Amino acid sequence: CQVDLSTLSKEQTHKLELPLEEGEGFLVLLVTLTASAAVTISDLSVNLLEDPKEREEILKRYSPMMMFQNIKDVGFLQVKVIRAEALMAADVTGKDSDPFCVVELNNDRLLTHTVYKNLNPEWNKIFTFNIKDIHSVLEVTVYDEDRDRSADFLGKVAIPLLSV
């Protein structure tokens, strides 16, 4: 099923019952659109941590003096998704893939753009997440985009934040 988020009002929980397109039954969702300034995507050429003002703000926010101000705000994670190499060919032709990358941390899920007909895609993106639980696991998955059906899985890596 598909949901057009542009029809939903912000900061309000919507209960949606959506019929499944392939098969029988309904999917029941509770959807709330809310702004999250902490989760961002930017190009590699625009690295906010290199801005001295931004760096100073972050250092202040996570200083030992501020430790107990917001106990759920553990820190932030910046992930640079640069490229993939030697991906499996998953297109019908058997020669190429149309890869895109999904980066997930808890309930935050961000995607790169798709690089068409390429087994060595370059995305050059920076993903920034708020960390609320140091025991979370960062998941990076690469898929092949298929216009006709769901995306094909090309590979995945799971990185526990405690190992970073």
Description:
The protein has 164 residues and is mostly beta strands. It has 2 domains: 35 residues, no CATH class; 128 residues, Immunoglobulin-like (Sandwich), CATH 2.60.40.150. Helices cover 6% and strands 40% of the residues. The protein is built from 1 helix and 9 strands. The strands form 3 sheets. A 4-stranded antiparallel beta sheet has the order 6-5-8-9, with no helix packed on it. A 3-stranded antiparallel beta sheet has the order 3-7-4, with no helix packed on it. The two termini are 37 Å apart. The model has no long low-confidence stretch (mean pLDDT 84).
Task: Based on the model shown, name its key terms.
mainly beta; Immunoglobulin-like; 3-stranded antiparallel β-sheet; calcium; C2_dom
User: Could you please say which CATH topology of the largest domain applies here?
Assistant: Immunoglobulin-like
| N-end to C-end Cα span | 37 Å
- The secondary-structure element order is EEEHEEEEEE
| Global Rg | 19 Å
What is the number of independent domains? 2
Any low-confidence stretches, pLDDT <50, length ≥5? none
Helical content, roughly? under 10%
Number of strands: 9
The amount of beta strand, in percent, is 35-45%
Question: Order of strands across the widest beta sheet?
Answer: 6-5-8-9
Biggest sheet, in brief? Answer: 4 strands, antiparallel
CATH architecture of the largest domain: Sandwich
What's the number of helices?
1
- State the fourth-level CATH superfamily of the largest domain: C2 domain
Q: What's the rounded overall pLDDT mean?
A: 84
CATH class of the largest domain: Mainly Beta
Morphology: globular
